[in-house]
Design brief:
Layout (H helix, E strand, L loop, with lengths): L1 H5 L6 H13 L3 H13 L6 H14 L3 H13 L6 H13 L3 H10 L6 H13 L3 H13 L6 H13 L3 H13 L7 H13 L3 H9 L7 H13 L3 H14 L4 H13 L3 H13 L19
Helix pairs in contact: 2-3, 2-4, 3-4, 4-5, 4-6, 5-6, 6-7, 6-8, 7-8, 8-9, 8-10, 9-10, 10-11, 10-12, 11-12, 12-13, 12-14, 13-14, 14-15, 14-16, 15-16, 16-17
Protein name: Pentatricopeptide repeat-containing protein
GO molecular function: RNA binding
Keywords: Repeat, Transit peptide
């Protein structure tokens, strides 16, 4: 209200920056883009802080390629396309949009100004889009250039191995992280290794890996393993896993939906009825929210 009451002529660059940051900090990415569009119409000079906020908003919105191009053109027109922080953010944004080729072009154009954040953004872009081998190649290049991998880079490249079913490579990376770089794995690293083994169909090995973890596995890891058992038709192991899951989170609605679907796939209708009855009597587990996904095809 204060910003709107100022009038366009009274607003300085600080006013626009403050308004954009306020929207960004309060989780309103769509409003960030709206304010930025007003700012562009008013021909106010864009700075690095505003560009980073706008690129972050696009990334959070999973925006269309047209919107991403508009933001990148704004960075180019403002002379910030070669700015390291802006370039890193654009690599990440295009990666989230599935535009890996554009991420690679921006990354390769950076030359000697690359930082460990640049390498992380590039490896993440490749990994999240299923280019596991390319992610490994970039990881090797990063090591050759003298950069030290951290927890985030290892997580990204192991995820890339998971999506491309590069089991031996994922194992070697996990081992290298602990033994060579002395990095203590996060729960997410263990989860990625379980996902890697499950995607490759090595369910028994995944189960043994979870049991041997030096930290208590979280329910997400058990659910990943249970879903993999269902997909691969391993009903006996699935039951053992679901027992762990429901014991850990007896009031989580998703556990009962997963168990019901798992027993239905095995045509164990008696257990399906038991699970649904148990689901109904537990507070907060009688309904489940539907999930929605969107896919961009030819700009639509």
């Amino acid at each position: 209200m204060v910003f709107a009451g100022m009038g366009v002529g009274m607003r300085s660059a600080v006013s626009w920056t403050s308004m954009i940051n306020a929207c960004c900090e309060n989780g309103r990415p769509a409003e960030v883009l709206g304010v930025f569009e007003e700012m562009s119409i008013a021909r106010v000079k864009v700075d690095e802080v505003i560009l980073l906020a706008v690129i972050s908003a696009c990334t959070k919105l999973d925006c269309t390629s047209g919107l991403g191009n508009w933001v990148e053109e704004s960075a180019l027109d403002s002379g910030f396309l070669q700015n390291t922080s802006v370039a890193n953010a654009l690599i990440h944004m295009h990666g989230k949009m599935g535009r890996v080729k554009r991420s690679c072009e921006i990354f390769d154009a950076m030359g000697a100004v690359k930082t460990v954040v640049s390498w992380t953004a590039m490896i993440q872009a490749l990994a999240m889009n299923g280019h596991g081998v390319a992610a490994l190649v970039r990881y090797t290049q990063m090591l050759r250039e003298g950069f030290m991998p951290d927890e985030v880079i290892f997580l990204s490249v192991i995820n890339g191995c998971s999506h491309s079913r590069l089991v031996s490579e994922g194992h070697q990376l996990f081992k290298s992280m602990i033994e060579e770089y002395h990095i203590t794995p996060w729960m997410e690293h263990y989860g990625s290794m379980v996902d890697l083994l499950c995607r490759a169909g090595s369910l028994d090995e995944a189960f043994e890996f979870v049991l041997a973890m030096p930290v208590t596995p979280d329910p997400v890891i058990w659910r990943v393993l249970a879903s993999a058992c269902r997909d691969h038709g391993n009903a006996s192991l699935a039951r053992r896993v679901m027992d762990h899951v429901i014991r850990m989170e007896p009031d989580h609605e998703g556990n009962y939906v997963l168990a019901s679907n798992l027993y239905a796939a095995d045509e164990d209708w008696r257990r399906v009825v038991d699970v649904r009855l148990d689901m109904g009597v537990r507070k907060g587990t009688s309904t489940a929210a539907a999930a929605v996904s969107s896919v961009e095809v030819s700009g639509e």
